[in-house]
Amino acid sequence: MTPRKIIIDTDPGQDDAVAILLALASPEDLDVLGITCVAGNVPLTLTARNARIICELADKPGVPVYAGCDRPLGRALVTAEHVHGKTGLDGPELPEPKMPLQDQHAVDFIVETLRREDAGTVTLCPLGPLTNIATAFQRAPDIVERVQEIVLMGGAYFEVGNITPAAEFNIYVDPEAADIVLKSGASIVVMPLDVTHKALVTAPRNAAFRALGTPVGIAVAQMTEFFERFDKEKYGSAGAPLHDPCVTAYLLAPELFSGRRVNVEVETHSELTMGMTVADWWGVTDRPANALFIGDLDADGFFALLTDRLGRL
Fold it and tell me: What span, in angstroms and rounded, lies between the C-alpha atoms of 112 and 100?
């Protein structure tokens, strides 16, 4: 079977790093055409640095990495050093990257790639704010119908918010961009907090990462140990939820996930609920379904897949 072509759009972030590693460990399934970086968890200079660090950790320095938008479409940037640390990858001691950042802007790469590849063969995998994707769609509306699928991590409904009472971080950072993407007409799968909070790195699961005995396994264990302190304190959970790897895992094993095709809209006007993803889970409106909104996963199957694949690197 031909590997599925993907572009990973990201703001690493420890959980972004694990999502990237899972993709790079699966070349028979996923052809990573490039990694595009956006400001989010930390500013753009750090997300572009972190993406290259992860490629080198995976011994994949040939994957092209592009820097994109350094701020949301119409508001000031909000970052999450309180979760991810000052670098975004706090936890392991990883060397500065040697591989170059590509000269081309991430948005131009997205547009060019979607126009070059056969229509319906490239999947976009946003792991952070949707600024790069929305900008590409605004700049080149012809590419929207060429996208095979968008599988994104963002939003929440039953789990409400993690950065405000109503909003999940990725959507809150750039709600206008999320609104553009969800209204684009592209085929969309949403991985909200409702499912990602079920992908918890418990102590035994983290021990399995460390037991791989490889630089990747040890680094992932160290990342999740740093990352989990925030969620343990906030939610009283048993460990850190691996939000972004749910995107990659869905591409590899969609049978691990379940959800509903519903209408999802983003609040862009109310300061009280700014960035809220309003999912019509119960079908109480006549608004047409625009996304597969995932609500559950087989957590044991997810971690078995993740540990097995990370062991390949």
Answer: 20
Interior angle at CA 270, CA 186 and CA 277, nearest 5? 35
Cα 130 from Cα 184, distance rounded (Å): 12
Cβ contacts of 139 within 8 Å, gap of 6 or more: 107, 111
- Known catalytic residues? 243
User: In this structure, what is the dihedral angle of CA atoms 108, 110, 114, 117, given to the nearest 10 degrees?
Assistant: 100
Along the chain (313 residues), what's the average pLDDT of each consecutive run of 10 residues?
96 95 98 98 96 97 98 94 84 93 98 98 98 98 98 96 95 98 98 95 92 94 77 64 96 98 97 96 97 97 96 94
pTM of the model: 0.95
Q: Are 283 and 274 in contact (CB under 8 A)?
A: no
Closest CA to 41 of 168, 190, 231: 168
Neighbouring C-alpha atoms within 13 Å toward the C-beta of 285: 12
